[in-house]
Structures are given as structure tokens and as C-alpha cells.
């Protein structure tokens, strides 16, 4: 259970506003001030300061305490669940992953993990990169596989592999296996995942790097999951930019073909992350060992 004063501190870190913090926690604003003053006295450190525009900021000591409190909050939620679990039924790994990896690569990792630790249970949660880090802080998951930046002040992380984004199409598409200029893609329909996903943001970065926008293409389809994107591409409904590891099996069996683009390169790094100084670090490291053997 997270101490009320630390809970107040974390909420103030998020809102940067004493009034909003009081409202969210259903306490008075003077109570918020008292909690912060108590922590500053206890730790003998200033935790917040105002800039010249009266905006609230964390001090360096405040950032350190935030990292500590976030780990406590995360571990508290996970420990509570384990304490309430029936005897001999608390050996569960709660793992999060970005959807693109969760629908392709991560199931292989879980299979290898369970071969080595057959008595373990695994709960896999799929979400976007930013959501995964929130779930870590809330204690919904113990560790995650993500392509997002994980600040070292809050998370422990290790880079696992670098992934390439490629352009793919149906074997029946006119550009299948061809080498073209980026502008040659404009004559075709572009298929991609919905907005507010990391996959969509990756696509926007690619287009901006080549002075392109969605309106330049003949048309487009925006859809929810990466598997739906793949199926539409296989049906020759258009082209798509996808991480290579997501479509490697399709490339190998010929159900998808790559379109080679001159002077094009797009790479991202996938990392394995967990809360810094977490009680569950040992369990996370066991799964990390398996990840390294798969990739």
C-alpha cells in the first residue's frame, strides 16, 4: 500500500497543480501542501520549485523521489495481487508488449520461457508504447517489450534488437520485388494502423523524412490491427510500411513481397524494460534471458 503522502506527491508530479491534486485525491488543498512539506522535511530536500511564470517543476531530488515512489506504487499493486492469490498460484509473469510484437514475435518468447519454467503462468497484455510504461508504473505488468524510450531515472531497460521498417505488397502488385523511388508509391493505396498508435507515428516520421503526406497517395485505408493490415495487403488492396520481423514469415513463404525503395532506411530499437529497483527484477531478468535467445 502506497503511503498517502507519497500518493499525493506522485499526483502532484502528474498534475503540477495543487488544486487539481486536491480534487483528484478528494482532499483539501492545505492537506496537499502539508503532505509535500512533510516529505520535504523528512527527506531534508526541496522537491518542487516555481519558474518565473509560476509553473511548477520538480527539483533533481524531487525527480529521484518520484522514481522511488513510482516503483513502490507499481510493486505494491503486484504484491497485493500475489498476497491475495491462492497458495501455490502466485507464480505468474505479467508481461506487456507493443501490439506489433505481441502478434508475431513475443509468442515465440513465451513458448521458450514456458519450456524452461513449465510451472509459471504468463499473462500477456498488448498495448501501445506509452500505455505500457503507464501499466508498469501502475503495477498492472512487471515488465514489457517496447520500441519507446525508457528514461533511466524510472526504468531499468536493455536493448534487445534493432528492427527495420520495409515497404510490402501482394505478389500480384505491379511493384512486387521492384526497386523504385519513393514518389513512385504515390500511385497506389497506402494501408496503415489507426492514429494514436506507435506504428502510425512511425509511418508519419517516414513520410515527413521524404517530404510526403497521406494526401499524396492514390487513397488509403486506416485500420485497427497489424494483422488486418497484413491481410488487406495480401488481398492486393494496397501497400504498407511494416517492421520486417512482423512480415518475415510472409516474405519467406511468398504471401508478401518487398518493394525496394532507393535511398530509404528506417530503423527502430526494441528494448526490454521494468521498474527501477523493483522487487520483481529477478523474475523480469529470467524472461529477458529467454528474449535474448529468441532474437
TrEMBL record:
Start and end residues of each HTH lysR-type domain: 1-59
Family: Belongs to the LysR transcriptional regulatory family.
Signal peptide: none
Protein name, as recorded: LysR family transcriptional regulator
UniProt KW keywords: DNA-binding, Transcription, Transcription regulation
Species the sequence originates in: Faecalicatena acetigenes
Amino acid at each position: 500500500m502506497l503511503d498517502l503522502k507519497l500518493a499525493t506527491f506522485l499526483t502532484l508530479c502528474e498534475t503540477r497543480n495543487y488544486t487539481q491534486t486536491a480534487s483528484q485525491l478528494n482532499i483539501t488543498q492545505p492537506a496537499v501542501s502539508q503532505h509535500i512539506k512533510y516529505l520535504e522535511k523528512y527527506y531534508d530536500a526541496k522537491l518542487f520549485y516555481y519558474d518565473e511564470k509560476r509553473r511548477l517543476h520538480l527539483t533533481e531530488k524531487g525527480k529521484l523521489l518520484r522514481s522511488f515512489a513510482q516503483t513502490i506504487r507499481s510493486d505494491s499493486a503486484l504484491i497485493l495481487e500475489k498476497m491475495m492469490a491462492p497458495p501455490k498460484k502466485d507464480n505468474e509473469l505479467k508481461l506487456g508488449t507493443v501490439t506489433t510484437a505481441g502478434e508475431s514475435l513475443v509468442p515465440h518468447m513465451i513458448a521458450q520461457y514456458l519450456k524452461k519454467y513449465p510451472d509459471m503462468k504468463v499473462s500477456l497484455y498488448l498495448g501501445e508504447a506509452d500505455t505500457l510504461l503507464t501499466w508498469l508504473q501502475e503495477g498492472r505488468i512487471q515488465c514489457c517489450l517496447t520500441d519507446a524510450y525508457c528514461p533511466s531515472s524510472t526504468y531499468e531497460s536493455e536493448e534487445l534488437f534493432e528492427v527495420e521498417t520495409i515497404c510490402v505488397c501482394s505478389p500480384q502488385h505491379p511493384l512486387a520485388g521492384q526497386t523504385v523511388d519513393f514518389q513512385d508509391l504515390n500511385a497506389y493505396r497506402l494501408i496503415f494502423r489507426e492514429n494514436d498508435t506507435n506504428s502510425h507515428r512511425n509511418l508519419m516520421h517516414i513520410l515527413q523524412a521524404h517530404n510526403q503526406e497521406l494526401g499524396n497517395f492514390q487513397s488509403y485505408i486506416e485500420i485497427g490491427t497489424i494483422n488486418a493490415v497484413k491481410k488487406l495487403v495480401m488481398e492486393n488492396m494496397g501497400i504498407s510500411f511494416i517492421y520486417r520481423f512482423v512480415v518475415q514469415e510472409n516474405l519467406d513463404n511468398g504471401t508478401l513481397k518487398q518493394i525496394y525503395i532507393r535511398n530509404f532506411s528506417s530503423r527502430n530499437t526494441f528494448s526490454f524494460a521494468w521498474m527501477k529497483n523493483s522487487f520483481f527484477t529477478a523474475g523480469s531478468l529470467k524472461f529477458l534471458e529467454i528474449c535474448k535467445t529468441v532474437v
